[in-house]
Design a protein that fits this description.
mainly beta; 111 residues; 4-stranded antiparallel β-sheet; single chain; 49% strand
């Protein structure tokens, strides 16, 4: 589990990883919200929305909205706002950020 302000409201948010069948489950609970957002990723190579292998590591870092792939949709960086990344050491990491336009966590990875 990691904690940090993903949406810039000044309230710490929580993210936790779990596993079920051949899926990696990421639950993100924004501070003050009763229900988490659930994202699922495949485990096994060859899938854009997946990981090559286990184990994976969940990390936080400073949010940067301007990437090599371009500007992230609905992204608003600010002091103390964090992004999440999930890494397996084999495939490119999946990077996650809060989109103010979509009102949800979105993800991207290098192509």
């Amino acid at each position: 589990m990691v904690c940090g302000d993903v949406n810039g409201d000044g309230i710490p948010d929580q993210a936790v990883l779990g596993y079920r069948d051949h899926l990696l489950i990421l639950a993100i609970r924004r501070g003050g919200q009763p229900r988490p957002q659930i994202l699922q990723f495949a485990i096994g190579g060859g899938v854009q929305q997946g990981f090559c292998s286990l184990p994976v590591t969940l990390r936080t870092s400073e949010l940067v909205c301007d990437t090599e792939e371009g500007l992230l949709y609905g992204c608003k960086a600010g002091k103390g706002v964090v992004a999440l990344s999930i890494e397996d050491g084999g495939c490119d990491p999946i990077n996650l950020y809060w989109s103010h336009e979509a009102q949800a966590m979105l993800w991207w990875r290098m192509k």
